[in-house]
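Batch manifest line 258
LIGAND: adenosine-5'-triphosphate
JOB: complex structure
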Amino acid sequence: MSNTDLVISISDLHKSYGQLDVLKGVTLNAKRGEVVSLIGSSGSGKSTLLRCANLLETPQQGDIVFKGEPVAWKGAGEARRPADTSQVLRIRTNLSMVFQQFNLWSHMTILQNVMEAPHSVLGRPKEDVKMAALAYLEKVGITEKADSYPAHLSGGQQQRAAIARALCMEPEALLFDEPTSALDPELEQEVIQVIKSLAKEGRTMLIVTHDMRLAWDVSDHVVFLNKGLIEEEGAPDDVFGHPKSERLQQFLKSTLAA
Ligand SMILES: Nc1ncnc2c1ncn2[C@@H]1O[C@H](COP(=O)(O)OP(=O)(O)OP(=O)(O)O)[C@@H](O)[C@H]1O
Ligand SMILES: [Mg+2]
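JOB STATUS: finished
ARTIFACT:
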């Protein structure tokens, strides 16, 4: 496998907030076209790992390589920061994030939300971006909501708009942080269908989810994070069907009982 087959490569990542060690040496790779799911109990560091991956947070130790390009750091420990702001922007716009709470701009229509970053941040021509945005809204099934404001959409529709917005960046990979957990069960399904169709298309995705069924169905690789360390990982059939560690067995029992 050549380096460029790896879209994201994270090695020995350490992240702490003051005295709290959240990530204690996490190594994780996502190849092109691969769907990697992160599972684990609340507080285990899943969101922190995702936020480090697209440089919303700075790890104190460890390396992050995006398509063969290592993130350049300056300083060390608490003072460590990315050295190159244009590299940060390039990586962040290539690893588009979808959040639990959608984070749409309330004063913009859905179409404007989807067009905003590709036009303003990436500087793509407005007409091109509009065509692409409409195509992505169609893909997630909410074309008729293009001119509505977020407040007038259901949660499932808002999350699908957020996915269209992420797609319109034409990113190398999509990062999802609990994309369905703010939704009622029937609205959850709308979003799950969209995520499944993206997986089928061969998109590279990192998905933090509490939905074990979704993780089992869409993932090529599942990572169980426990207290800042990877406790177990593997193919979904192994991780869910034959969990080896006692902690994972307990975790799966408790999530299935919930
Ligand atoms: N900005 C921050 N400042 C201080 N502590 C933080 C910060 N962000 C996260 N933490 C702490 O780091 C730990 C891991 O948080 P994180 O959000 O990564 O967990 P998680 O696995 O995503 O949990 P959940 O399933 O509840 O979303 C928690 O104890 C949290 O309180
Ligand atoms: Mg989280």
